[in-house]
């Protein structure tokens, strides 16, 4: 039995209405389009040939490309000034027309 009391139940607010208010389109399609626009097709990998190291381009799969795209979107959104993460991400996507 806890002496502090019981915790309040919190309801999650939907963040997708932020994009919908600004663009008047489906927020999920805007997010998918942003991820598609940032997804890379190739990456460079270090390969050792003889005594030197070369950067060799390799093709990456769709799942790894999407993971990189989401990671890049979140990283650049975190650097923006704003109130919360939903506001930062939505403003980044809308301002850059990704």
Automatic annotation (TrEMBL):
Stored InterPro entries: Ribosomal_uS7 (IPR000235), Ribosomal_uS7_dom (IPR023798), Ribosomal_uS7_dom_sf (IPR036823)
Pfam families, alphabetized: Ribosomal_S7
Ribosomal protein recorded as keyword: yes
Keyword set, alphabetical order: Ribonucleoprotein, Ribosomal protein
Gene3D superfamilies: Ribosomal protein S7 domain
Gene Ontology cellular-component annotations: ribonucleoprotein complex; ribosome
Domain Small ribosomal subunit protein uS7: 18-95
One of the protein's GO biological processes: translation
Family that this chain belongs to: Belongs to the universal ribosomal protein uS7 family.
Protein name (record): Small ribosomal subunit protein uS7 domain-containing protein
Organism: Escallonia herrerae
């Amino acid at each position: 039995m806890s002496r502090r009391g019981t915790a309040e139940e919190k309801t999650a607010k939907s963040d997708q209405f932020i994009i919908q208010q600004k663009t008047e389109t489906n927020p999920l399609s805007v997010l998918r389009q942003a991820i598609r626009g940032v997804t890379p097709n190739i990456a460079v990998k270090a390969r050792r040939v003889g005594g030197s190291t070369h950067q060799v381009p390799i093709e990456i799969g769709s799942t790894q490309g999407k993971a990189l795209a989401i990671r890049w979107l979140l990283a650049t959104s975190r650097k923006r000034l704003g109130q919360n993460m939903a506001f930062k991400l939505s403003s980044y996507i809308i301002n850059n027309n990704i």
